[in-house]
Amino acid sequence: MLDSLLDHLARSRGIGDAYHDYRGELRAFSPATKTAILSAMGCNVTDVAAIEREIRALDAERWRSVLPPVAVLRPGHAGVVLALPADALDQPVAWRIAREDGAELVGEVRASDLGEVERRELDGRWLTRRVLVLPEGLPPGYHSLAVRTADGATGECVLIAAPSRCHEPDSLAGGRRLWGLAVQLYTLRSGSNWGIGDFADLREVVQRCAAEGAAFIGLNPLHALFPSNPGHFSPYSPSTRHFLNVLYIAVPDVPEFAECVEARQRVAAPEFERELARLRATEHVDYPGVARAKLPVLQVLFEQFGRTHLDRGTARGRVFDDYCRERGEPLRRHALHDAIDAHLRGQDPDRYWGWPVWPAELRDPAHQAVRDFEERHRAAVEFHQWLQWIADEQLAAAQQLARDLGMPIGLYGDYAVGVNPSGSETWSDQLVYRMGAGVGAPPDALALKGQDWGIPPQDPHALIAESYRPFSNLVAANMRHFGALRLDHVMALFRQWWVPVGLGATDGGYVHYPLDDLMSVLALESARHRCLVVGEDLGTVPDEMRRAMAEFAVYSYKVLLFEKHGDGRFRRPEEYVHRAIATVTTHDLPTLRGYWAGRDLELRDRLQLFPGDEIRRYVLDERVRDRAQLLAALDSVGLRPALAGDAEFGYGEALAHAVQLYLAKSAAALVVLQFEDLIGMADPVNVPGTSHEHANWQRKVTASLDDALGRETTLRLFADVRRARAS
User: 515: alpha, beta or left, given left = phi > 0 and alpha = psi -120 to 50?
Assistant: First the structure.
């Protein structure tokens, strides 16, 4: 009885029964796994009686509420399910829709005329669930629906009317093929930045690439990190995805810099200039050094802004106030988090590593102690709001420049799959995040113990209860200044591998999410922001996810190194699907040079990342075959180059040029070149499965912006790619 009740509750909360592993074998989730995941969700599963209470509570939510918390409507799917007493079917049901634009629609229908989808007895009374079909043509947006029955029962829900698919520029829908350049912004070198690529560098990249015919510039996630802990710098483990990493601010471009004598004198001091020269010259980004250089100067500029604009109520001061009002409570909470974090780390950085260990009264954003802190430290909170405003302004300026220069897409952003458990996003939104589990991946051939990424998951049940606002707000925040957005690990919209705290990744289990609803919200925000959506669908992609991506016009992600037939042949250019973005490699893979020379395999061997000698030998042999197959593929389209010599298996500029041009000939609508491959870099950005063993998210590119984008080989490649894309 216990196991059957546990299974019932688990299914009701989205937990799967089994999955097919990487060998194709069906593996059932154990009762211990289901129990642990349910506990992480906040369910009491200590005994039979407790589980029965949880099931009854879910039944009450579903059957005793006239309306669900949220209903999502799409063209051709305009029904909302009502829960009604079966003995009141002869009575009318009145409904009213309050549209987002202020208009209202009203109607009335007899309950017995509604189609029934389910019926059951609950506590001695029969209840029925019936579909209320609403008028077609409701404009896309976030509306509200209210219903009232003749006996006085009422219900309200958020009504999300979504378009049928995500935004797709007319040029792409019409078959045009575009190209762009991908940069890890922090890696860029220039004579003006302060040791880390910044938004001024981004504008330079936009200007140079637009002149060569590029349609977009791809970026790493720009999410906010931890200003008070600059040693935590992974863009895929951010503090929050609602806001931006303030270390990307180009300090001299802040308008207050020109007005502030103190800041200019500080920056012009010989010792400061020497420090900037050191920061620019380092092989890896010195994040703490960059923070020590930028944040104090930005503090001075903020104080200048307060004196000259806020205190005087100038037009610029009013723009800042408007930004704070527009971003609302999420901005307030993020700024509060960063102010509290800075305050406590200043007292004891070893003790106060994140909000889960803050004093108990500060862990709840709604607690009076947090409001008291805000009152006492108002200037510190406002400083962090101002930093976000400046970063937002500079990113917006880069996108506006791209549009002014005729780029059809402009900036192509990246949305990380999750956040760090100690960041402002989890602190601000504790109703949705489940800190008792982490998101990861089941075992596969190269990670036999599975993976736990340490990212707390959002509870799908809580997402529904919150009417999907946490998701829609996140998507909207990330589409503000992008013409395209990549969703990291897009399969997370369908299912996530939860690893309960205390269990290994092999003992995790899949939790399923309302895929079509989330895709509809994504489509609505995509249409509103006119933002193309790319889903990073590498690895095992469930059929449900493939169907949804095709249906909602979400572009696929194609990596040349993986695009092979079963016999090892590389996919020919014309065999690529059109609705996709194609790239030679990614931030999680070796550079083209590193791949060809086998540097990544040497590194994995040195770091003991192979699970065994058999797999190691297989991968080494496969690389030999892949080199031969890639040369054959190049030869098949008349691009086979003369190899450079014996060193690195003949890698040279001619080979790099041929491989990238091969990809440019593909049928994929979008093709992206990697900055590192323009200059022949060998070291990867990131080595999955490592933390301190490799300088992940730290190494800079080996050439300056001016050199890399101005050299003859780069300009020739851009010209050839432009011609290949246009043909």
Answer: alpha
